[in-house]
Design goal:
By secondary structure, the protein is of the alpha/beta class. It has helices at 11-23, 37-44, 60-67, 83-92, 105-123, 152-168, and strands at 3-7, 27-30, 48-52, 75-79, 97-100, 126-129, 132-135, 140-143, 146-149. It has a 5-stranded parallel beta sheet with strand order 2-1-3-4-5, sandwiched between helices. A 4-stranded antiparallel beta sheet has the order 6-7-8-9, with helices on one face. The protein is elongated, with a radius of gyration of 18 Å.
């Protein structure tokens, strides 16, 4: 089940998003402490984030910049603000898509499905063993928030190890 983090402070919109996500079998999470958005994001480790621009404490641009220091999780911005300047700024700051409020929940879900479909395909380039993740294209080994760049030989050896452990556990 995909994990979607909703960083939205409007209770009505939040409730509508959660309802739509649950209908499509997505697990949704909401921010509990507006001063700890970055920490909560790390703890939840979502597959996708929906980010409002206007938030308590800091805006969505700020939080996106903070999140990008440790994650490349896809982010969809939502905002009632004027489209052009905010959309450009959102994409420039690391967002993958942008929705203007009010929006159709069908469009909302479609955008989530499209982004997750693209990211799921790239995850096929990744092997996992326990909490270790090996990107076979970049030879990067990730454990929690730590990333280690491996040599091509080290990457190949680890890839063989991951395959061996997977076939033994079947």
């Amino acid at each position: 089940m995909n994990r979607i983090l909703l960083i939205e402070d409007n209770a009505d919109i939040l409730q509508a998003m959660q309802l739509a996500l649950s209908k499509w079998q997505y697990q949704s999470f909401v921010i509990q402490d507006w001063q700890q958005v970055e920490i909560e994001c790390q703890q939840i480790n979502p597959d996708l984030i929906v980010m409002d621009i206007t938030l308590p404490m800091f805006d969505g641009f700020y939080w996106t910049k903070q999140i990008r220091t440790f994650s490349q999780v896809p982010i969809i911005f939502v905002s009632a603000a004027q489209m052009d300047p905010n959309a450009v700024r959102a994409i420039a700051s690391g967002a993958d898509d942008y929705l203007v409020k009010p929006f159709s929940m069908d469009v909302f879900i479609s955008k989530i499905q499209a982004i997750l479909r693209r990211t799921q395909q790239s995850l096929q380039e990744e092997l996992t063993f326990q909490n270790y993740h090996l990107n076979m294209l970049t030879n990067e080994l990730r454990y929690q928030q730590t990333i280690i760049k491996l040599s091509p030989t080290e990457g190949l050896i680890l890839k063989l190890f991951f395959f061996a452990t997977q076939s033994n556990s079947i």
